[in-house]
Amino acid sequence: MRTILSVNNLRAVYLVREGTIKACDGVSFDVEENTVYAIVGESASGKSTIIEAMTLTLPPNSKILEGEVIYQGKNLLKLPENELRKIRWTEIALVPQAAQQSLNPTMKIIDHFFDTVNAHDSNWKSDEIIKKIEELISLVRLDPKNVLYSFPHQLSGGMKQRVLIALSLIFNPKILILDEPTSALDVLTQAHIIQLLKNLKKELNLTLIFVTHDIAVAAELSDRISVVYAGNIVENGPTRDVLKNPKHPYTQGLVNSIMSLISDPEKIKGIPGDPPSLLNPPSGCRFHPRCPYIMEECKKEKPPMYFLNNNRNVACYLYK
Question: Can you give the pTM of this predicted structure?
């Protein structure tokens, strides 16, 4: 398969009163065309920062220190704003975290679509826009007559999430990036959103990149997965392989802590200790204070990414 997006040594920080939060520290991965790529990690692990740095949507108190995000031979981080604007939303679209709160409560749903189109392409005629909007609302399994002339507060959380997904597809992007697309939704609605994303990928030949803290969602939806811990990717590979046979001690701990209907409760155990502060992370491997296999070199140097068989990568000295 062809690589559609490459992230190379991406480093981003937040500048706060207490110091510098090192939330994305040398992240690299490749996304293949027409696949689903998951970025998984605990809350405050830096996974959303990775997405926001890739799309240049970080808040004002942040800074990208170095790295590349290569799309069609161009480094997005170095493009002038006018060139980036031609790519953003039209070729790479983002549904941000807490997307349901990003709808303007004073505007009807149809007006959100008109605003987006007019901000990027003023050549569309009104009837063309309406036809496109109705197609997209129907595509995400909503009724245009009931939804388009409603205000956001009149829709359920799942309906608003579907509206945001439809809005992100208005210009037929090649890549759709979603930050926690199923969070704050009940289990049944989560299942509907997952199935919707599967259908959209197939029908539109989309490449999906999504962030989640829920391994079950990643297992259900993604082809490939990156596991993030304290601002670092510690393991990546085909989703089935990573979850069936995790290599990094942190990934092993995550998988062992998952409760399922067929799991033995006595074998379920959490990871001892707490995640480190990204204001002052540990030296070397950031997982070493919690790792059962700690070695002296783990405390001194950050482990490189070691390449294993079957397209697997793991950042751990156990595989040196």
Answer: 0.92
